[in-house]
Amino acid sequence: MAGKKEEFSCEMYSNKFFLLCLAGGAVACGSTHTLVTPLDLVKCRLQVDPAKYKSIFRGFGVSLREGGLANIVKGWAPTFIGYSLQGGVKFSGYEYFKYAFANMTGEENAYLYRTYLYLAASASAEFCADVFLSPFEATKVRIQTTPGYTSKMRVAMPHMMSTEGIGVFYKGLVPLWARQIPYTMMKFSSFEKTIELLYEHLVPKPRSQCTKEEQLVVTFTAGYIAGVLCAIVSHPADTLVSKLNKEPGASIGSLVAELGFFGIWRGLVARIVMIGTLTGLQWFIYDGFKVYTGMPRPPPAEMPASLKKKLAGKK
Description:
The chain is mostly helical. Helices cover 78% and strands 0% of the residues. It contains 13 helices and no strands. The longest helix is centred in the last third of the chain and has 35 residues. The protein is elongated.
């Protein structure tokens, strides 16, 4: 009803707010990454053994012939747990760092230099999140790309630990950072900017006048666009992560030399389809979680009244 003040389940930037962000991020990332496990599996196999799998479609065919449906969902458990942890830390961390950095710089500077703020907040959040993801990513890739290896996470992780030590779980952390940090910086900054542009130029009415359902459609659209950009930026590092977890004794330099320029971009089309859909769904689920739990949802960045006043005074 017009004029009725909306009630929220928590205060903006309270401890409960950040805990709910953590839960929303876990739901958004854990569910979506698990959903695309078959595509991710074929992409990883194509990256580490292009002679055998050749293309995405051939990769699906070979994988199905070799082990049926069970063969294309290998690695779902470490995917679900790893990306739930990573998603929770990433989304809640982004909200926290964005809030903290904005307070450090002041309201006006936070608006004027908001893109840099988005980049710094997302990079900080992803740096922390990947520490939680790395052991499960290493396990996932080992299960998916090593012929004859167990498909059970509860067997794979103890075996990897006993035979190669705890370092095997963090062997791919640096290339994981190299993949995920640029990806997340692009994911959050391009999403924030796209949301601004959509409401400014495409949506025919202000966000405040849109229904929650209409707002969620805009969220998904902005998320999908951000996802396509993310896939391109992070793909070379994604290829290296797959190769390193398949061949833990190799160095990054030797793998770059082995793959060459075109090899490092192999699987990009599949990654664009996967990450575009994934990112759009993640933003949709995360924003939908906020709506469902009654959380406050900050609008797109708006120029502070004090800055408007200063600019008006200069005219």
